[in-house]
Amino acid sequence: MIAASVNRGRQRILISLGLALPVSFVLALALGTISIPWHETLAVLSGNSDASRASLVIEQIRLPRAILAALVGAILGVTGATTQGLFRNALADPSLIGVTSGASAGAALAIFFAGELLILTGLSGLGLVSLGAFIGGALAVIIVYTLATNQHGTSVATMLLAGIAITALATSLTSLLEFFGDDEMLRRITIWRMGGLDGANYQRVWAAIVGGGLVLLSLPRFATALNALLLGESEARHLGLSVQKIKIQLILLVALGVGVSVALAGTIAFIGLVVPHIVRLLIGPDHRYLLPASAIGGATLLLLSDTVARTVLSPIELPVGLITALLGAPFFISLLRHRRDYGMR
Questions:
Q1: In the 8-state DSSP scheme, what is residue 93?
Q2: Which DSSP string do the residues of 97-133 spell out, in sequence order?
Q3: Does the pLDDT at position 9 exceed 80?
Q4: Per the count of CB atoms within 10 A, which of 7, 86, 230, 245 is most buried?
Q5: CB distance 243 to 237 below 8 Å
Q6: What DSSP state is assigned to residue 95?
Q7: What would you report as the CA-atom Rg of the chain, rounded to the nearest whole angstrom?
Q8: Which positions ≥6 away from 34 have C-beta within 8 Å?
Q9: What is the C-alpha to C-alpha distance for residues 310 and 213, in angstroms, rounded to an integer?
Q10: Rounded distance between C-alpha atoms, residue 214 and residue 252, angstroms
Q11: Is 0.85 topped by the overall pTM?
C-alpha cells in the first residue's frame, strides 16, 4: 500500500516535470526583446506560419538557443545526479572531478592565444574556444583519474582530493591568464566563466546532440548499479557488480557530458548541484526515477534561467550562469535550513 502510494507520488512529479518542460520551451521562444504571441509561436513550431519576422526570429535565433539550453540543462542535471550517486553524497557536484575548471582553463588558453591559434587551425573564434574547453576538461579528468587509480582500483576519496587539487591549479592558471591578458581578453574570459548561450546555432545544437545524447542515453542504464553503490562498494561487489568497471564508465560519461556543456555554453553554476538534490528530496534516491527527473528538471531550469537572462534587463542580456546561481542559491539555502541531513536519504 505504501509502495503504491510512493510510486503514484513519483509519477505525479514526473508528469509535472514533463509538462513544465514544453511550457518553458515555448516560453523561451515567445519572450525576448521582441515578444511573440503564444499562438504565433505555436504556429511557427507546427509549420503553419508564413514567412514573417516572428518566424525568422524563432527559427534562426531562438529555436537553436532553446534546444541548446534544454540539452545542456539536461546534461548538467543527469551528470550531477550521477556524481552524487558515485560519491554517495547529495551535495556532490560534477566540478569535484576537475572537469569544469579544466574546461574553463582550456577556454581561457584558447582566448589568450586566439590570434595565433586562429591562423593555425582556421577555426572560428567560438569554435576554437569550445575546442579548447573540451580539451582542457578531458585533460583534467585524465590527470584526476590517473592520480586516483592504482593496482587496487580507483579510489573515489582520492579522486575527490585530486579533483580539488586540479581545480585549484586550473583556477590559478585561468587567473594568471587574466592577469597578463589585455582588457579584451579579460572581458572574454570573464564572460565565458559566467556562462552563456548567446553563441547558439544549429552547429552547436548538433554537437550537443551527438556528445550529450550519448551521455543522456547511457547514464540511465546505470541506475540499478548506482542504487547498489549507495549500499557501499563491498555490498555492490557481493551483488555481482564489476565496481571498478562501472566507476570508470560513469567517470568517463560524466566527464564527457560536463566537457560538452562547458565547451558549448561556458560555466553554468548550480544546476548540477541543486536540481538533483531537489529532485531527490521530492522522489527519493532511486536512480531509476532520479536520473530522468534530474535531466528534465535541469533542462527546464536552464530554459527558464536563459529566458530571464534575456528579458529581465532587455535589451541587455545577462550571463545565464549568474541567473542560475541567483535563482538556485536562495532556494537551496531555504531547503537546507529545513533539512540538515546531507546524506543520500
A1: -
A2: GTHHHHHHHHHHHHHHTHHHHHHHH---HHHHHHHHH
A3: no
A4: 86
A5: yes
A6: G
A7: 20
A8: 53, 54, 57
A9: 26
A10: 11
A11: yes
Secondary structure (DSSP) of 23-52: HHHHHHHH-SSS---HHHHHHHHHT---S-
Q: Which amino acid is at 96?
A: L
Q: Are 164 and 100 in contact (CB under 8 A)?
A: no
The cell numbers describing 306, all together, are 536563459
Task: Mark 59-77 as b/e (b = at least 16 C-beta within 10 Å).
Answer: bebbbbbbbbbbbbbbbbb
What are 150's strand-pairing partners?
153
User: How far, in Å, CA of 76 to CA of 89, rounded?
Assistant: 17
pLDDT reading at 314 higher than 90: no
Cell of 93: 557536484
Residues in the chain: 345
Residue range 224-229: average pLDDT?
93
Q: Which residues contact 181 (CB under 8 A, 6 or more apart)?
A: 111, 112, 189
Q: Which residues contact 164 (CB under 8 A, 6 or more apart)?
A: 96, 98
Closest CA to 81 of 219, 212, 221, 232: 219
pLDDT tens-digit map of 61-113: 899 999 999 999 999 999 999 999 988 877 778 888 888 889 889 888 888 88
